[in-house]
Amino acid sequence: MSEPTSDLLFDYLLRLGDDALIAAQRLAEWYASSPEMEEDVALANIALDQLGAARALLTYAGEVEGAGRDEDALAYLRDDREFRNCLLVELPNRDFAVTIAKLLLLSAYQLPRYDALVSSADSRLAEIAAKARKESAYHLDHAARWALRLGDGTEDSHRRMQAAVDALWPYVHELLAADEPTIRLAAAGIAADPAELRAAWLSTVEPLLVEATLDRPADGWAPEGGRVGRHTEHLSYLLGEAQVVHRAHPGVRW
Amino acid sequence: MSGEWPLWEVFVRSRRGLSHGHVGSLHAPDAQMALRNARDLYTRRQEGVSIWVVPADAISASSPDEKDAFFDPAADKVYRYPTFYEVPEGVAHL
Lengths: 254, 94
Hints:
The structure holds two protein chains of two kinds. Chain A is mainly alpha-helical. Chain A has ten helices and no strands. By secondary structure, chain B is α+β, with helices and mostly antiparallel strands. In chain B, strands 2-1-3 form a three-stranded antiparallel sheet, covered by helices on one side. Chain B contains two helices and three strands. Chain B starts with 6 loop residues before the first strand and ends in a 23-residue tail after the last helix. Chain B has helices at about 30-40, 65-70; strands spanning about 5-15, 20-25, 50-55. Chains A and B meet through helix 2 and helix 6 of A and helix 1 of B.
């Protein structure tokens, strides 16, 4: 593999891995505080799925980089500016409806992305995607069922679900964006084609919003920067909590 | 919010067995969510290939008070066991 492609692949793997890692951390925050005990377990399961995918992706990223960094070095010893996740996943949980909306918007993207990567020219990435796609299908199912129940539920649940979708919609722009590095990797048969992902995402999310009696927000303000390391302040706090043990006790094990 | 969701009884058919067995119960707002909660709670370690959920209040159960009338009479009915019957000499294909 030529040097530039290897740099692009490293960056792409960080995007995928960091999306999953940060989503896992946010979901784990619900443990023991979600609306029902059953939902604690469901969200924790999803968090662990995301963490598992993150581990595989970051491990591979470290190998591609070739600088001796393993999954722990990448997860625990990078600062916020070095993370490549989309802004959507780092936003605070707040309301349960916000978490469901975030999971819906994210998994409706992760699923077709992993689906497409199953036939990636990069066989290692294809293997990781083959495992993750089944998990993503369940995440999307879980989020979609909740979105239907909250959107088409009580007056209060509808209001909260609509508010959550409205608040998160601007961040979808970055999630679906097609930037030059991804287009180049997609042309090489390695990355998923952003244009196809956008179409797949819309064909999942838009009908679901209708079914959940939710209005599709208008496109407008479109914050971005996560893919190049410019994050919201929320990521720093999240990383502070996620990384403190490893940084205080380097190499510590259970 | 706890207590508002109805209780469901969960039955799982394992890989090895042929019939669904009761594994426990859970709370869920409706049947679809109950199935998914059951998947998360009771099949995390590949315990099953099929799940049933039943509203707990749809199950009619025998009462502990009726135990004697229900179950004790079976204790001395040895003729209900196949071993009670002697097979005559010369019976083929049994």
